[in-house]
Design a protein that fits this description.
The chain is mostly helical. It has 6 helices and no strands.
């Protein structure tokens, strides 16, 4: 496969991943508004579909094409000394691990609790408790800003580690603001 084809595939995967992250975020925020169990259950299904159908495949293709692209331009591990490549790789690994541990376990638990609630015909106390977990709110709101930090690093290609640190600091600050404000702005419907 040519380098141009790899780049194109890499960019398409970035678009797919970004779209999936935004779709998951919107669906998850909408679950906070829902007191209708049927709509809530459909939103939980949507989260699973977006995550499994867009986020995971996009991340896998980005990982594969990214490694091949780096290998085609650089000699071994020297590529990761470049701040923009090292920063993107570190953020990618962090997001991949976080997404496949914290986020996956949480949504799996919510999906299971939602099935139990649907069988019971009402929101259960366990599901309500899971909906209110704040650490998941922060990690969920961190996904999109860190994704944008990775896009920034890939587009701007800064040659300073300071730019990488600032991109991460800004992403974390945005996540803190979002997780502090959005849940308060999004009130459950009657």
């Amino acid at each position: 496969m040519s380098v141009e084809a790899l780049r194109f595939l890499h960019v398409v995967a970035v678009i797919v991943l970004g779209g999936g992250l935004l779709a998951v975020l919107v669906a998850e925020v909408r679950t906070r508004r829902q007191n209708d169990l049927g709509i809530f259950a459909e939103l939980v299904k949507s989260i699973r579909i977006f995550y499994s159908g867009l986020v995971v495949p996009g991340a896998i293709v980005i990982g594969i094409t990214g490694v091949v692209l780096v290998a085609s331009y650089y000699d071994g591990w020297a590529a990761f000394a470049e701040p923009w490549i090292g920063g993107m790789a570190a953020l990618y690994v962090f997001e991949f691990v976080e997404g496949n541990t914290v986020t996956r376990f949480y949504f799996g638990r919510v999906r299971r609790l939602t099935r139990d609630a649907v069988a019971a015909g009402r929101f259960t106390p366990e599901l309500e408790a899971a909906r209110g977990q704040q650490i998941l709110t922060f990690t969920h709101f961190l996904d999109v800003p860190l994704f944008l930090a990775m896009v920034f690093l890939g587009v701007a290609r800064p040659d300073s580690w300071n730019a990488v640190v600032w991109a991460v600091v800004v992403a974390a600050a945005v996540a803190v603001v979002l997780s502090a404000t959005v849940p308060r702005l999004v009130r459950p419907t009657a």
